Amino acid sequence: MKFEEFKYGLPTKNFIIKKGNFLIEKLKNASSFEEANKAFKSFEKYKSKIYTLFTNVSVHFTLDVRNETYVKNNDKMNELSPICAEINTRFNEILVKSKFRKELEEKYGSYLFKMLELSLKTFKPEIMEDIVKEGNLVNEYTKTMSSLTIEYKGKKYSLSMAGKFLESLDREERKTVGKAIHEKVLEVKDKVEDIYDQLVILRDGMAKKLGFKNYVELGYANMGRTDYTSKEVALYRQQILESVTPLCKKLERARRKRIGISSPYFYDNAITYKDGNPKVKGEEKVLVAEAEKMYKKLSKDTGEFFVFLQENHLLDLTAREGKSGGGYMTYFPDYQCPFIFSNFNGTSGDVDVLTHEFGHAFQAYCSKKIKPSAYQSPTMESCEIHSMSMEFLAYPYMDAFFDNSKKYRFAHLTDAIMFLPYGVAVDEFQHFVYENPNCGVKARDEKWLEIQKKYQPYLSNKGSELLESGARWIRQHHIFQSPFYYIDYTLAQVCAFQFFNWDVKNHEKTWKRYVKLCKLGGKYPFQELINKVHLKNPFVSGTVKKTIRPLVKYLKENTID
Ligand code: ZN
Fold it and tell me: How far apart are CA 47 and CA 88, in angstroms?
């Protein structure tokens, strides 16, 4: 079935409530394991049907945000979502207390019930109003930040569009645009920090209403973390500080030498090479054709899957008017197929979509037969392993995509390493924030500066009032939108590095392990999952150091002066 043949429309409110309540009653009144299991299976089908329709409404909205029907349906879906969530909660409450739980656990495994119990702890009707308030505050932040524009050479740019000038080889241009961007953000600093202050106090209140000590615990529960706590995460951050920060210091020193600026200003921070970044070889058509060749060479499965995506029109890649920003992979459960959305703009990011989002899509495709649906996709730190590892597994094929693939690989790997200290800084900052919810705005900025100095002592804030004030963090939308998510990217990165190190030595074996991981879906929590494919656990002392060592060697052998 092709994408345009997928059913478009919403289930009625009446259907959602009536059918949902009917299945809840069935489960409640089940007099045997068979009956309880039947209700569970029917509820899975019911959820899958609704979710598939919701996904299509949401995808269409992002394909053309100007289309009135798409907008109307998207709004309507946002009204229906809380109703579905409420029904889902009631069903799960009965499921975990079912007198047939033992048999159900034998059939589906205890991890399912652990996940359900954790998610039930994150909700009580008393916090319903707070959830709405939280959503509104986050929206206000998003609106404030995305409405910021600057003017340059008579043209208006959104801040993310203007970001490309920070890679310009003309230092004056970087300075002018860089300053304009930071001054713009500075204008809304007070407003945005006040929004965050309200968010923090609100979230702290929600945590306490639910019986948690503070929002750190609720934040972890919201991320579905059943197998580690903030204690393990703190020790992991320490490993990054000890093993990665010193390496980044060296990499930064080498970068300064390479670009010929010994004392950089903040607007010099995005430059990797004196003569510019590697250029991509073409537009969507060219890149997709090359990607097809690459995935056919990589394995029979990836080749077939990439052709399947194209034939069924499941790739919408190039930027065009009316499309919303960014890129994502989503999944249609009833049709058992993924969909990739992005905004190609002629930079190396286009190639990253074809590898990163394809990695996500390939995992979804590999896990499509897994039941129950809760086991199809793991928690976020595991999900990003599939995508980030694919970026590295594609390294040998980069000649086809770039005029200078050696430069691309060097910059990509360097960026990936340099990301780790920043990623854990964002995480440590959030722990401070939610452990000290009433510390006030000024103390937060001071703390950010302190944490940044600790993890990224080499980073230059010079020339930016915004950065020197300690408010860099207000531009990281995850801090507002998705508390405690950020560390997941770094945990996945450490695992993806291991796939890369293996791949350099033995491609066959590495590929088999990668496919095995994709096929395991979300059957296990993070640490058990990575253990199944022999990845070293980032939480175990020494793992980061051992993982980084071969990367240093690779960079030395493939260095670019
Ligand atoms: Zn991703």
Answer: 9
> What is the distance in A from the centroid of ligand 1 to the CA of 430?
21
Q: Rounded to an integer, what distance in angstroms lies between the CA atom of residue 26 and that of residue 42?
A: 10
d(CA 551, CA 481): 33
The helix-helix angle for 441-455 and 230-243 (nearest 10°) equals 50
- Type of residue found at 338: P
pTM exceeds cut of 0.90: yes
Distance 208 CA to ligand 1 centre (A): 32
Measured distance CA(24)–CA(74) in Å, rounded: 27
Q: Are 382 and 225 in contact (CB under 8 A)?
A: no
Does residue 33 contact residue 97 with C-beta atoms inside 8 Å?
no
Phi (first) and psi of residue 308, to 5 degrees: -55, -45
Q: What is d(CA 428, CA 484) in angstroms, rounded to the nearest whole number?
A: 9
466-499: pLDDT as tens digits = 999 999 999 999 999 999 999 999 999 999 999 9
Q: Are β-strands 337-344 and 315-318 bridged in parallel, bridged antiparallel, or unpaired?
A: parallel
Beta bridge partners of 316: 341
**CB contact at 8 A, 367 and 522:** yes
**Helix (H) / strand (E) containing 331:** strand 328-332
Distance 257 CA to ligand 1 centre (A): 32
Per-residue pLDDT reduced to its tens digit, 193-243: 999 999 999 999 999 999 999 999 999 999 999 999 999 999 999 999 999
Q: Which residues, chain by chain, have CB under 5 Å from ion ligand 1?
A: 387
CA–CA dist 27, 98 (Å, integer): 8
